[in-house]
From TrEMBL:
The lineage of its organism: Bacteria, Pseudomonadati, Pseudomonadota, Alphaproteobacteria, Candidatus Pelagibacterales. This is Uncharacterized protein.
Amino acid sequence: MPQQPPRLASQQLVQGHLTFGALISYWRGRSRLSGNQMTAIASWGLGERSWLDSAVISRIENGRQARGCSLKNLLAFDAANAAIHLWQTKGAQACWGRYGPHTVWGVRDEWLSEAIWLPVPDQPQHPLEFSDFAEVLVGRTELPYLGTVSLGDGDAEAMSNRLSDLLNGLLTSSGLGPREGLKALLLAYPTKDPDRQSRLMAL
């Protein structure tokens, strides 16, 4: 089977910006962090006001090359990822010793406890660092936990609505009422994560 020719650098950059945008969207979505919350955590990790803001994060998530992610932004994402990782693996005292009090930057305990940090694919105990973020941005690294398609808020909402309609149809055709249907659904999709359970019940 003939080998595929290597992608041009320009093609890598285009794909890299899209992948990086999907990565940040995935990270914020799984962490349930707003742009302002992510910015506050990055500022705490940097020890100075971050170059991020909600508008910059939105442009990055949309995969825009023009006015997209800069080296300063990579430093900010690296700082946020490192801070969340240290909080969850070493605890608050270790974070205070390295970064100082997080409350000065408006960061709350629950943001750090409930967020996820992004791991290095072949070293899952280590967080992505500046060089890793840069490799993703220029299209030289693919992350196994990240899909190739980036969904916008509208796409995610439409998929959620379709899933809700599908589940309602299945339960109705089974002749189950709302309560019985919900119990059957939870049994079919067992999870001990209370947050996932509450989201499933809401759906």
